[in-house]
Amino acid sequence: MTVIAGAVAALVSAVLITMIMVGVRGRASDYERNKALSTALRVAEQFRSRPVRGEIGDAPHGIAVQVLDARNTVIAGTPDTVHGPPMATFRPGVATGFKDAQVLCPPGGMRGCRWVIEFSVHRPAGDWEVYAAAPNVPWYVNGGLLTFLVSTALLLVLLVCLRTWRTIDRTLAPVDGIRRELTEITASKSGRRVTVPGNRDEIRWLAEAVNATLDRLDAALAKQRSFTSDASHDLRSPIAAARTQLEEALLYADDTDWPHTARTVLQTLDRLQAIVTDLLQLARLDAGAWQDTEPVDLAAMVTIELARSDRGKRIVPHLQEGVRLHGDRLRLVRLFTNLLDNAERHAESRVDVTVRDEDGVAVLEVLDDGAGIAPAEREVVFQRFARLKAGKARDANGTGLGLPIAREIARAHGGTLKVEDSDRGARFVLRIPRKP
Length: 436
What we know:
The chain is of the alpha+beta class. The chain contains nine helices and 13 strands. The strands form three sheets. Strands 1-3-2-6-5-4 form a six-stranded mixed β-sheet, covered by helices on one side. A five-stranded mixed β-sheet has the order 8-10-11-13-12. Strand 10 and strand 11 form a beta hairpin. The longest helix is centred in the middle third of the chain and has 50 residues. The radius of gyration is 49 Å and the shape is rod-shaped. About 0% of the residues have low confidence.
């Protein structure tokens, strides 16, 4: 910020210096030309009283004067021109009548560019010419003025930088306080928040944004802790059940029906394997693991999946052809089978599956004819390991992860999965934009 302020100050100073130099140069040029003009007029007037010959010693400093007779011979002039060649040969123009002025680089016998003015003096033997040359003022006028202006500009830049440094230091003091408070916040002390300044500026907005971020992090940590607790509980339950069954069988080994015990333990292991598989799937979704997308025909995918397995309930498809989207086919299949398994678990006799297009949005709808889901519990079913009483009664071996996995897959495709209103049963509606 200080560098930017210094650059701006330097730019402003350069503009101001340029404007001052242009103005001063114009005034200085006018001053030098007026001196040359007055000197030439004075010399021309002297012809009326007496002839002018030899050196002209009363010319102002820096002004060169030269008098030429009718044969263009130098007959008078300042010491630096009286013995030299004519400094100019031009004559008065038609427009001026009696005088003319030009910039010569250089005039005869001189160095550098000069502003030269000419007057004609009428004599019986012919017109004589009076030339007066003034130095052409350089762009910087003179070294002293340039040094003064540059020094003033550098001082201005230095003052601006110092002022900017103090302002930034004072302004960023709350930022340093926010930084110190953030370094003290850890996972075990995540409930703290940074101090929000009272003034309404960017620093306050920064503090509010930091606190909002910390709120989201706390929510994520709470969700993670809850998930870890639920996962450990659901993993311990089948392990403890299998261990209890085996220990009981070993206590009464002679009276145990070992094939029945093995089948029971195998069922418990199947539930444990299902939980682990779902947890791995959720971990991959949370990590953002993603495969290359491909065009997926939603109606064709539903048709193929319905033909692959036998269902205990009647499945009625309502499929619109040509509804294609870009996505991960395997994950979309997993999403559909999770919805279909859930609908079949709660349906009385029928499940309706609908595929349609709504203004460029692919819609997949799964509707069962069961008891439905109360509005207050429509978001609860998407929480990990959350199981309603009706679901536990119908399937005690469920993991409570099927619907959360389905929603995460929908989100990964930029879509939504919700429970919407229906006349009867639960109506799950997936919406995914057809264009990625």
